[in-house]
Automatic annotation (TrEMBL):
It comes from the Bacteria. Gene3D superfamilies: Glutaredoxin. Residues 24-53 are annotated as: Disordered. This is Redoxin domain-containing protein. Residues 54-195 form the Thioredoxin domain. GO terms for molecular function: antioxidant activity; oxidoreductase activity. Pfam families: AhpC-TSA. Residues 40-49 have a biased composition (Low complexity). InterPro entries: AhpC/TSA (IPR000866), Thioredoxin-like_sf (IPR036249), Thioredoxin_domain (IPR013766).
Length: 195
């Protein structure tokens, strides 16, 4: 019995630490912005970069991410019109992100009229099999895409979340309808996505 409890405890801590370490990465990313907003530079060009977004963007900002499967650029112009658009900032190793993705996949029929974009700054090779592993029902759906944020635009233009997964819902007009960090009940999540 003692070994079972120990295994369960270690498993729970592993899942928690995955999301917690990502949380620490987001917080660590935020500290330079707080202390050196004017001194941040892009290491590849030595040009100053934009400060990090402390508040969720009220209007959908211009962005350029990259489709994980093809490497093709993806911008605002590629978003289908006349439906809610949801961005889920995630880390492939985050247990809460994996759980939310699985629950969204099981409820795909309710979400087929919502644009769903899973965005991460992680190495694309770590993201490549994320949906196949945790959300099989979302694979190859026309309204679902996994996007690589190569230039860390999300935390500069959208928001720096405190926890993953971070969800951002923009309406037909590009206005932020709701956003939250961390885990919520799937009923709440789906209701907000389709509202």
């Amino acid at each position: 019995m003692k070994h079972i409890f120990t295994s369960l405890t270690i498993g729970a801590l592993t899942i928690f630490s995955a999301c917690q370490s990502n949380n620490n990465n987001a917080e660590n990313a935020q500290h330079p912005a707080e202390h050196h907003m004017d001194q941040q530079q892009d290491p590849t060009t030595s040009q100053p970069t934009a400060p990090m977004a402390k508040e969720a963007a009220k209007q959908l900002p211009d962005f350029k991410f990259y489709k994980v499967k093809s490497g093709i650029g993806f911008t605002n112009a590629d978003i289908p019109a006349n439906r809610n658009t949801v961005f889920i900032l995630f880390d492939p190793s985050c247990g809460h992100c994996q759980t939310e993705t699985g629950l969204l996949a099981k409820n795909y029929e309710k979400l087929k009229d919502v644009n769903l974009y899973f965005v991460s700054m992680n190495d694309p090779s770590l993201m490549a099999s994320f949906l196949e592993t945790f959300g099989k029902e979302l694979v190859d759906k026309p309204n679902v895409e996994v996007l690589y944020d190569r230039n860390q635009e999300f935390i500069q233009k959208f928001h720096v979340p405190a926890q993953f997964p971070a969800n951002y819902i923009y309406g037909v007009d590009g206005t932020l309808k709701n956003s939250w960090d961390g885990e919520k009940s799937i009923d709440f999540v789906i209701a907000e996505f389709i509202k």
